[in-house]
Amino acid sequence: MNRTIRGMSILGAAGTLLIVLMGALVTKTGSADGCGNTWPFCHGEIFPSYHTLELWIEYSHRIVSGLVGLIVVVASVGAWLLHKQNFTVKFLAFNSVFFIVLQGLLGAAAVIWGQSDAVLALHFGFSLISFASVLLLAVVLIRINRQGPSRGGNASTVSRQLKYGIWGLAVYTYVVVYTGAYVRHTGSSLGCADWPLCGSKWVPDLFSQVGIQLTHRLLAGLLFLFAVWLWWAVRKKYPHRKDLNRGARWSLILTLLQVLTGGAIVLTKLELMVALAHATLVCLFFSAVCYLCMQVGPPWKDHRDSSSLQGKQGDPLTP
Questions:
Q1: 278 labelled as ligand-binding?
Q2: Is 185 within any annotated ligand binding site?
Q3: Is 45 a residue of the active site?
Q4: φ, ψ for residue 63 (rounded to 5)?
């Protein structure tokens, strides 16, 4: 049973990433109305009577989302039942189910009733949380299998300042992701035809397409600087914590690649594969930051954390 649930969690993580990319494909190709204003079927038909590229891009996204959602629910419920004493497993299992259902309902609402660009941008953010939750659940289950239900935990202490810094970075990353999704939904991806500069404009006006694009660029640039700070702080103060150094290093690499692919989207005039690569890197970067949050535990709790993530005692997320 443990092996089956682990396998399903890994499959769910891969599937959730596929959902995110297919959702980005729907937005990039303008296929959101491919099935009309009916949901979950296309124009009210299980098997559409006519076919267009936009229809099948949208309908395939719905089909895959439904199948992956079922896998995630089964894996999460199974993980919860198998590891009732592990708060981290239960926390991630709950988030996995909650956010994959929430993003599905938001998608349905957008099809049936329509939504503003500001609300539509939330859809990608919730998809991001869903992917991170499912991926980290798979990571925890794999680690439990390798290490067993350890009760000890890592004896090193992480400062409360670093905890707040990591958790703050996760929140700020979500804000940057939201502005990026807002850029897409408002059609502002080419609001600035140059990169990294935007002609003579330096200060965004927040309302025009130029302002929306430039705001996202400035926030993304600041995010990269935060990632550099995190890597430096962890490397300097906690060189013995391999888990934190690994997470901080990947965060830095992924955010750098994210910035570069963001610029490439503009320079290649919205090349689809570049845009999908950018979305993939965003998902992986956010997951890396969430991994660090899981490793250090809540900043409001002053306790000795654990990198094992196993038993209830020493579990970083235990309240």
A1: yes
A2: no
A3: no
A4: -65, -50
